[in-house]
Amino acid sequence: xxxxxxxxxxxxxxxxxxxxxxxxxxxxxxxxxxxxxxxxxxxxxxxxxxxxxxxxxxxxxxxxxxxxxxxxxxxxxxxxxxxxxxxxxxxxxxxxxxxxxxxxxxxxxxxxxxxxxxxxxxxxxxxxxxxxxxxxxxxxxxxxxxxxxxxxxxxxxxxxxxxxxxxxxxxxxxxxxxxxxxxxxxxxxxxxxxxxxxxxxxxxxxxxxxxxxxxxxxxxxxxxxxxxxxxxxxx
Length: 235
Prior knowledge:
Blueprint: E1 2-3, E2 10-11, H1 19-22, E3 51-57, H2 62-79, E4 83-89, E5 94-97, E6 104-107, H3 112-127, H4 130-142, H5 149-157, H6 162-168, H7 171-185, E7 193-194, E8 196-199, H8 205-211, H9 215-222
Parallel strand pairs: 3-4
Antiparallel strand pairs: 1-7, 2-6, 3-8, 5-6
């Protein structure tokens, strides 16, 4: 896990945001990656309410990359009828607002490259459909989420990157990242590391710890009856 810290290089983005932009919160769907299938697709036995995995993360955190690309996204691909991902890309970043000018800047734990990749994730969540944004973010994370992989993943998934790029490099990206920072800062209890994993918006330390190694087992605990057959083996 990546602990809270202040090890990043300040990432200054010059943009003046008035009060109107501070209160603009994004309505978004969140995120995952279409990797090679290794299991038979699991079909729902009825219309279940999907379990929401709320993932508070940062794009270049090694533990986040591993959890997203190796655990969360492959499971979503197999169980998308039962699992909904709520990506919150901010993690251990810090938002700095100038008292004099209202200018916003960010410091990201893994430096300016992480801030840039976070912005791309923010904008993908805003401008792509739910499924597209899931696949796009997981594609980037499977490539360790360097900013340059955004265009590669967009081409691979046949989605328009122009709007994401414009957003991520301009005031809209700043506004979105500010909103994700506000959401992260309002966590109760406050996050101590990333990835910080909630189920249906609820904090449960045991479930968060177990999800790192056995995400399917924790997910099956939350899936309503009748559960898919695969849960009979783990729950």
